[in-house]
Design goal:
Blueprint lengths: L1 E2 H8 L3 H9 L7 E2 L6 E3 L3 H13 L4 H9 L4 H30 L8 E5 L2 E9 L11 H24 L9 E7 L2 E9 L6 H5 L6 E5 L2 E9 L7 H14 L10 E4 L5 E10 L2
Antiparallel strand pairs: 1-3, 2-3, 4-9, 5-7, 5-8, 6-7, 6-10, 9-11, 10-11
Helix pairs in contact: 4-5, 5-8
GO molecular function: DNA binding; DNA-binding transcription factor activity
Organism: Actinoalloteichus hoggarensis
Pfam families: MerR_1
Length: about 280
């Protein structure tokens, strides 16, 4: 039998770590003295200590390590599953760093600018997003689903307009809002001057017509993000906030436009409307 100090030296795990593993039920001492609480371990427990150390060094959380130890017949599969999760997580981190370097350090500084824009007629349709609780917020599957639903809404509105002989005058933009009890994305297509509002709203029950007024706006343009969560988007929004600081812009009305060649994206927010 080994005291906790001797076992710590043998396994290169600190007594504090061994106590923690005991408390979590991961490496329970062979004996615990009832009167003193002293822990003692056996030589056979060295193998478990080594397995735990290897898995922990690989980044596996204690709960997953316990699952591996409790299911030796499935240990290989459980380790492979964790390794794949780790690989995906590292790719996301690598992509984020690459995006940050491209956006901020590769000679293309992200800065917000101010411009004046004329009034713009538009046709729009609102796409409701999944309810909270239907999916995990922010996970890859949810983001893909949201993007796919928004793209379908945009494709449908474009087809309705073109079928009616109304040709959009540029790329569509979107903004985030609320629709009933859900968050929603509203897709807008710019229309030619003189477009008939009645004709637009007759295309479908959920299609509406409006005008983005003449305005001054802050805007920023960046390369199209390579993945959801790309840090270049956060850098762009930060630049937009800096450009609108003290100007009273309503950032909840942020507009996003995927430019015609789909290699760049623009973010804009109205500062002041013109009479």
């Amino acid at each position: 039998m080994f005291t906790i100090s001797a076992f710590a030296r043998l396994t290169e795990l600190s007594p504090k770590t061994l106590r923690y593993y005991h408390d979590r039920g991961l490496l329970v001492p062979a004996q615990v003295a009832a009167d003193t609480g002293y822990r003692t371990y056996t030589l056979r427990q060295v193998a478990d200590a080594v397995r735990i150390s290897v898995l922990r060094r690989g980044g596996m959380p204690v709960s997953r390590v316990r699952e591996v130890l409790d299911n030796p017949d499935h240990a290989d599969a459980l380790i492979d599953e964790f390794h794949e999760e780790l690989r995906r997580r590292r790719k996301i981190e690598d992509d984020a760093l690459t995006g940050a370097r491209r956006a901020a350090f590769d000679g293309e500084a992200v800065t917000g600018e101010i411009r004046s824009m004329p009034a713009q007629l538009y046709a729009a349709v609102t796409v409701a997003l999944p309810l909270a609780g239907e999916t995990e917020p922010g996970d890859d599957a949810t983001l893909r689903r949201i993007n796919e639903e928004v793209d379908r809404g945009a494709d449908r509105l474009r087809d309705l307009l073109i079928t009616a002989g109304i040709t959009p005058t540029g790329p569509w933009w979107s903004n985030l809002g609320v629709h009933g009890d859900r968050m929603a994305v509203t897709v807008h297509f710019p229309l030619p001057n003189g477009a008939d509002p009645a004709e637009v709203t007759s295309l479908a029950e959920d299609v509406h017509h409006g005008e983005l007024p003449a305005r001054s706006e802050a805007w920023v343009e960046i390369p199209y993000p390579e993945s959801d969560g790309d840090s270049s988007v956060r850098l762009a929004l930060s630049a937009l906030v800096s450009a609108t600081d003290e100007l009273g812009a309503d950032l909840t009305a942020l507009r996003q436009t995927i430019l015609a060649d789909a290699t760049r994206v623009e973010f804009a927010v109205t500062l002041e409307t013109s009479p």
